[in-house]
Write a structure and sequence with these properties.
Elements lengths: L1 H37 L4 H10 L4 H11 L5 H11 L9 H18 L5 H13 L1 H6 L6 H20 L3 H15 L5 H11 L4 H7 L1 H5 L1 H9 L11 H5 L1 H6 L7 H25 L1 H22 L14 H13 L3 H23 L6 H10 L8 E3 L3 H11 L6 E5 L6 E6 L2 E6 L8 E5 L4
Parallel strand pairs: 1-3
Antiparallel strand pairs: 1-5, 2-5, 3-4
């Protein structure tokens, strides 16, 4: 009788966890799909759209090498999806699928390391966390890179636990796919080698494709695609985990300073907890900490490459580590804290979603409605670089726009301030303002 009761309880727990994982998947889908379907492409996405619109694969690869800052695999996948008849903007569904799989994979893998409620909490953090939500609806490679980092962890664990040629090949394939999707994946691969040195052969084999691409990598770096990042900032590094899951730091002087550092402490404590618990836990701990540490070290040495989105691959492991730290607390206090954190994740997502991105497609439509013609300058009051690419994409016939400074020479121009378009004349214009004009216009 006792055995039957135990089996029934185990079955109910499995069903409850399965229902929770399905809820996490739905949360990720609900967070990413609406934006992927309805938001206008922004500057970086327009760059991706141009790449995957190239008619031939060689042209696509050359485009990536000359204009992008990441390896070509994601672009190749997006290019193939587009060639199958999917619209350019709808190729964002690749990121949506990656977001759902990432949230579920985080939940399922975490279950082997932390209690079920903590695994569900870490999965929910990945489903609703700001970087995962933003890039999960985006025409960019980041969400796929994060998913491949979890695949790397699973493949590495399996290759060590069950050594075989097949499992070594799977590990090499994970390394090849991840390193061909985002350069910062190399830091995660380094974490795997730090974990168990016997993985280095499979990792080395997996690095062959990116080694073949290395000349393009050098070219991309020399074109200063990362120059906007600026010099080393210790606070940016320290608040990386917070910025991964929250759009902004909390209000109030105390919380503004304490909350991000509190999460950093939780991740580090949880990483130590995981590392002491098992070999798998040690791998997860290294994958949470090493990529951020290595990227920060290179930044400190002068390579201005550090950006929170670039270390998104550490996010799922950081979520599991933080959940492991919370699971150390007595159950009487851990359960209410987990519920409170889940509520904060939902509220944080809802607050971030209240601020939709700029409707660049509507700005272009408003220009046309106001009477804009290709020989009319577009005076930009604000961030001209944010508007530049999207206007080229959404204006009729996709004109090539050139940036100018000063007062336009034509009698009529169109001023863009936020989402408002105003027709102005020469005497109404301020000096020193930036404006865009069609390259072929007189």
């Amino acid at each position: 009788m006792a055995v039957a009761v135990e089996l029934r309880r185990d079955r109910l727990e499995r069903l409850a966890f399965g229902a929770g994982a399905a809820t996490v998947a739905l949360a990720a889908l609900g967070a990413c799909l609406p934006g992927a379907r309805h938001y206008a492409l922004w500057q970086d996405e327009v760059a991706s759209a141009r790449v995957i619109s190239d008619p031939h694969p060689t042209a696509m690869l050359e485009h990536v090498a000359h204009t992008e800052s990441t390896p070509p695999l994601w672009y190749a996948i997006a290019w193939l999806v587009h060639r199958c008849g999917v619209g350019v903007a709808d190729v964002r569904l690749v990121s949506v699928v990656a977001a759902v799989l990432l949230a579920v994979a985080t939940t399922v893998t975490a279950r082997r390391l932390v209690p079920a409620w903590a695994a569900l909490l870490s999965g929910l953090a990945v489903a609703l966390g700001y970087q995962f939500d933003f890039h999960g609806r985006e025409l960019r490679a980041y969400e796929l890179a994060a998913l491949l980092t979890v695949a790397l962890a699973v493949a590495a664990e399996r290759a060590v636990a069950l050594p075989s040629r097949r499992n070594s090949m799977l590990l090499a394939a994970a390394v090849a796919a991840g390193s061909s999707t985002h350069y910062f994946f190399l830091f995660s691969a380094a974490a795997v080698v730090c974990w168990r040195r016997e993985t280095w052969r499979a990792v080395a084999v997996g690095l062959v494709p990116i080694a073949a691409w290395s000349s393009a990598l050098v070219h991309q770096y020399e074109r200063h695609r990362f120059s906007f990042i600026g010099p080393f900032d210790a606070r940016t590094v320290a608040t990386t985990y917070w910025a991964t899951f929250a759009r902004a730091q909390p209000h109030g002087e105390l919380l503004h300073d304490a909350a991000p550092f509190g999460l950093l402490a939780a991740v580090l404590v949880g990483a130590v907890t995981l590392a002491r618990r098992s070999e798998t836990g040690r791998l997860w701990a290294l994958l949470a900490v090493v990529p951020v540490a290595l990227a920060a070290a290179l930044w400190l040495l002068g390579a201005n490459i550090y950006d929170v989105r670039n270390v998104i691959g550490a996010g799922p492991f950081a979520a599991v580590a933080a959940a492991a730290a919370l699971a150390r607390a007595p159950r009487a206090s851990a359960a209410p804290a987990a519920c409170a954190l889940a509520a904060l994740l939902v509220v944080g997502y809802a607050r971030a979603a209240r601020v939709p991105p700029v409707a660049y497609d509507r700005i272009a439509a408003a220009l046309v409605t106001a009477g804009w013609q290709p020989d009319d300058p577009i005076v930009v009051r604000g961030n001209v670089f944010a508007l530049w690419g999207p206007l080229e994409w959404y204006l009729p016939n996709r004109p090539v726009l050139v940036l100018h400074h000063g007062v336009p020479s034509s009698a009529v121009a169109f001023a863009v301030r936020g989402t408002f378009v105003t027709r102005i004349r020469h005497h109404a214009r301020a000096r020193g303002v930036a404006y865009l004009a069609v390259r072929s216009a007189p």
